[in-house]
């Protein structure tokens, strides 16, 4: 057995320890990604081995808090992949107009960048009033930020460009007011959004939705956990409901592949047909 095999065992044992001591379940995340983060934390804590890090975090919740921050990749952008939002506007919105009430689940919403983008799009298309958006993430700190709806002013140039490319109908700056270094989005955009904690690795379904967006979350999961999440999303989607995934994610090879029809495969939009 070489050094790298031993490290894999250490990583698995550490993830098991994290689960048993703190209840956070990272056991089915992609091993290489987790290893990178663990080794980084090990270095920053000045510890010589992964096992030493495990020992410290079992006894010191502050070490766990720091590792948790390393584990969370919260990168997001408003109107991320503008083509996806354009496609939502052009191909999905017409399908949604027929519903009197719309329920949308945004799973893994991070600090809310995509959720506010969706709220803007729905407002412009006249559908916001009849929509309830459930925005969930397992990271409480991100959810707290999302509830505030304040994003760095320095990002507004990129977000404005994305909004235009996504087919925005208005003037992006009308949706926020600036204060110090922040852009505060209109509180009316959050009126129909429920932010709540939900862990895709361990929690179950909580409603039936017409649209589910789960973008750039499953890329960090191993195949087994991806399948679990696909099962959960499938079970939470109404018949003819829409599923939106991230640019690097797909339904291909998932056990539910045959239960969806591609609506726009390039933009990773699918429709549940079975
Ligand atoms: C890279 S961000 C993607 C955010 C947004 N969906 C986007 O595409 O811009 C990934 C998000 O997934 C969340 N996440 C990771 N594992 C999760 C889990 N097991 N349950 C719920 N959310 C999770 C992270 O906290 C993070 O906010």
Give the number of helices: 9
Helix/strand-derived class? alpha/beta
Write down the oligomeric state.
single chain
Uncertain regions spanning at least 5 consecutive residues: none
Strand order of the largest sheet: 6-2-1-7-8-10-9
Alpha-carbon distance between the two ends? 47 Å
Give the overall form: globular
Q: Strand count, sense and closure of the main sheet?
A: 7 strands, mixed
Helix content bin: 40-55%
Radius of gyration: 20 Å
List all distinct small molecules, including ions and cofactors, that are bound in this structure. S-adenosylmethionine
User: Strand tally, please?
Assistant: 10
The gist of it:
The chain has 274 residues and is of the alpha/beta class. 42% of the residues lie in helices and 19% in strands.
Task: Explain how this protein is built.
42% of the residues lie in helices and 19% in strands. It contains nine helices and ten strands. Helix 1 packs across helix 2 (31-44). It starts with a helix and ends with a strand. The structure holds S-adenosylmethionine. Residues 72-76, 80, 108-110, 114, 137-139, 142, 199-201, 215-217, 246 line the site of S-adenosylmethionine.
